[in-house]
Here is the input.
Amino acid sequence: MSVIDTPAQGSSTPERPRAFIRPDGKEKVTGLGRYTADLTFTGQLHAAFRYADHPHARIVSIDTSRAKALPGVFAVVTHEDVPDVRYGGMTQDRRLFAKEKVLWEGDVVAGVAARTVEIARQAAALVEVEYEVLPAQPDYVANMAPDAPVLHEGWAEYGADENLVRDGNVMSRYVIAKGDADAAMAGADVVVKSHYVSDASQGVPIEPRALVAQWTGDSVTVWSSTQVPFAARSGVAHTLQIPESKVRIVVPLLGGGFGSKCDFHFEAHVAILAKVTRRPVRLVFTRKEEFVAPDHRREGMDIELETGVTRDGRIVARRGRMVLDKGAYTGEGGFFAQMAAMHACGPYKLDTVRVEAFLNYSTNQPAASIRAPTAPQACWALEQHLDEVAAAIGMDPVELRRRTLVAEGDEGPAGQVFEKIGAKETLEAALELIGYDAYLRGELPDDEAVGVACGWWPCFGVPSGAYVKLNGDGTATIVTGAQENGSGSVMGLPILAAEILGMSPSDFSINYQDTDAGPWDMGSSGSQTTFNNGRAVVEAAQEVRAKLLAMGAEKLEADVADLELADGTVRVKGAPETSVTIADLAGTGEPILGKGSGEVPEAAASDASACVGSLGMESFLAPQLITHAARVKVDRDTGVVRVLDFAAAHDSGVIVNKVGADGQVYGGVMMGIGQALTEATWTDEEGRQKNPGLLDYKLQTASDGPRIQIRWIEIETPNAGPKGSKGVGEPPSVPTSGAVGNAIAKVIGRHVDQLPMTAERVWLAANSPAGEDQ
Amino acid sequence: MAVDITLSVNGVPYPLTVDPHASLLHTVRGDVGLTGSKEGCDDSECGACMMLVDGRPVNACSYLAVQADGSDVTTVEGLSDGETLAPLQEAFLTRGGVQCGFCTPGMLVSATALLDRTPNPSEDEIRTAVSGNLCRCTGYDGIVKAIAAVAAERAAQG
Here is the structure.
C-alpha cells in the first residue's frame, strides 16, 4: 500500500505544476474549441418542443395546423410522424412523442423546426392539444398503495428485463436478505430506528445540452452533447427503426454531464425533424429546459433504517425500507432499487440483513443516473443513522465504524467475500487530515464540529475497445469509443499507452467521441473509462509493442528479448546507442496498429439466493472505499451552515493520472456539499419545478468552498483495472452529505432528517423541542 | 428596427447592424463569429459569457450589443494570440483548472479583470472575484491555485 497526499490551497508545500497538460486543454483555454452549440450549418433550422401542459393527462387530440401555418415553420412533428415504438432501459415505457398520455411536465408532445429559434418556440406554443386532465400523482410513496391509480396502465405489454419485479406503480422491487434479521433484531442489546427523506436534485452541467442532426442519403449524423454516444446511436436506430449502421453520433467538446447527459435523450427528435425538412436541424436548450426536460435527475428517496447492535458495537441486524421516486419513465435507471439497497447496507460487517427497496413511478420528472446514482442520499441517511446508533450505545461514532467497516475476508450483504480493500485505511487517513483528535479534545468553538462518513461504490466491468496506431512521424493515435466530459480520459489513456511504448504521453493524439471511428464503449458513465477502456488501450498498445519489437529485432539484428522501448526508440538493453527510432519504423508505410478490448473483470461471487429482483449488482466489483470528514460551522440564529475544512480519503486503487483524479475529488466534494446544503428541485403540489434556474437552484461558488485535502490510499486491488486502478469519478460525491450532516448534528444536537439540509431545516431542527418531529 | 453600431472586439472593429434587443453575447457569437464565450444560463447567473467591456467584466448575455457600441470588447479569444498562451491560460492547464472547459472562457476573463485591478490578491479576493462564474467540475481548487500562481509569479518579477 502507498499513500499520496494532495496539499490544500494555502499549504506551505504547494504542488509543482504538471508537465503533461490535457491534450484538449489549449483549445479550451483559447476559446477556439467547439462545443455542440458552437456549430452552425448552412441552411440549418432551429428546433423547439411543445411540452406537456399538465403533469398527468390523457391526450384527446393534437392539432398542428396553426403551428404549421406560421411563416418560417418548416415542420411540426408528433407521434404520428415516427414509428410506433417504445424505448427505455429495463422497461420500454416511453415514446419519442407522447401518444396516449403525458406523464410529467417535460413530456414532449410535438417538435417544431423553423427558420429561427423564436419562430420555432412561437409555433410550439401554437400546437393545439386537447387533454383530459388526470390528477397528478407526485407522491411516489403513496403511489404504491393498492388503490393508487396505475400510471402505466398497459405496462404488462411493455418489453422489460425478466428480473424486474413489477407491481402496480412499483417499477421494480429489490430485497437483500441475509440470515434472519427479525430474530437477530429481537435479540439485539439496542435497536435504533431512523427515517430520512431526500428531495430530488439535478446534475446541472454548465453546458445546456445541444444537438444538430443532418442526413446524407439515408444516413444521419447527430452531433450531440451526450456522455454516451453509443447508447444514443442505439436509441436513434430503435426509435426511428433504421439500422445502427445508418446512425453516426459525434460528440464535440462536452461541457460537463455529471450523469445528466447519460442515456439516449433527444437525438432522434432532432433527427426526425432534419429528415422531414431535409435540412440540418439544431436544438440548444435554455437553462430552464436543461432543468425541466431531460428524463434525468437525482431521485427523491424515502429511507427507513433500523439497526440492532450489541453494546460493544457489533451490528447484529439491519433492516431497511427504501422508496425511490422513479418519476414518469424508466430511462436507464431500472437498477436503482438494487443499488440503493446496497448503499443502505454500506461497507460494514452486518450479521443479518433485510433491506427492501422500491422504485416507484410518479408523475414527476424521471430520475436517472446522476453522479453515483442513489448513493449520496442513501449514504447520507445510513451514516447519520450510524451516528445515532453510536450515540445510543455511548460510543464515539468513529469507534463504531472502526469496529464494523469491512476488510479483507469479511462478507458483504449478499455473501460477497471481500478481497483486499482499504476501507479502514481511508477512515484513519481522513481523521488525521481533519484533525479529529483535536476535535475530540474540545479544541473547536462550540458552533463548530467534525462529522465523519464512509461509503463505497462499485466498478462496472463492461466490454470496451480501442485501437492504437503509429503515425509516420513517430507519434501515435488512440482511436477509442471512450468519451471525455472533463473526466480526464484524454490524459489517462495516453499515460497508459505511453508507458508501454516507451513514448511520452504528449506523443499521443486521441480520435474519440465518434461512433463511426472507435469501437463500442459504455461512455463516460459509471466511473469506468480507465477501468475498462484503459484495459483496451493497454492491450492495443501491447500489440503495437510486439510489432515494434519484432521490426526492431530485424532492423538491429538483435533478439527481441534483448530489446526495450524507451525514449521513442527500440533499442538494445544496456546499449542504447544501438537503436532505431519509432518514427523510422512507422515511417516505412507499413501500418503499425494494435487493437484491444481485454478480458472484462467479473464481479465477485455472491449468494443472492435470498434476494429478490436480482439485477447482478449483489456484489461490488473492485469496490472503491471512501471516508469523508467535514468541519462545519453552524450559525444557530439562522441555520446557515458553512463547511470550513474537508478531508477526502479514497481507495481508488492505483492512481494513473493524479491531476485528473484530484480534480474529480475537488469537483465531486463541492457537488456533494451543494447537495448537502442547498441543491434541491422544489416542486409545486403537482410536481412542477419551481426553481428551474441557477438563481434559485443554488450551486456552490468559489466563495462557498472549503479547504479540501485529499489522500489516496493505493491498495493492490485484485481484479482491478490497468495498473491496479479502480474508478474515481463518482465516489467523491458519495459520503459527502453524510459527513456534513453528522457535523451539523454534533453542533445542534439533532440530526436533520431532510436533504438538502437547508438553513431553514437546520434552524427548525435546532429549535424544535426534543422528541418532536420537525 | 435595426441599429448600426461598431464593436471593437479584441482590437478588431466590426461595423454591425443589430436588433436593439440583441445581447452582446449573441452578437459576438453570431455576427462576429467568436464562439469562445459560452451561454450557460442567459440570466447572469453562471458567468460563462463573461467579457471585458472597456476593461470591466460583464455578463454579455445580459448586456445589449447597442450598449457596447464604440466600446472595446475583450473575449477569451483576445487573451492571447492563440500560440503563446497568456500566463493565466497556461496556469489553468498546469494547475488542474480546466476539466470540461465550458466555464473556462468566462473564468479566465474574470481572472484577467481581477489581476488587472488587484495584482496581488488574497485567496479570499480570488474566490470572490470568480464567485460569479460557476464551475461544476473542478471544485474551483485548480482555478484558485492557478490565479494565485500567476499573481505570485508577477510579484516575483516585480
About this structure: The CA atoms of residues 10 and 52 of chain A lie 51 Å apart.
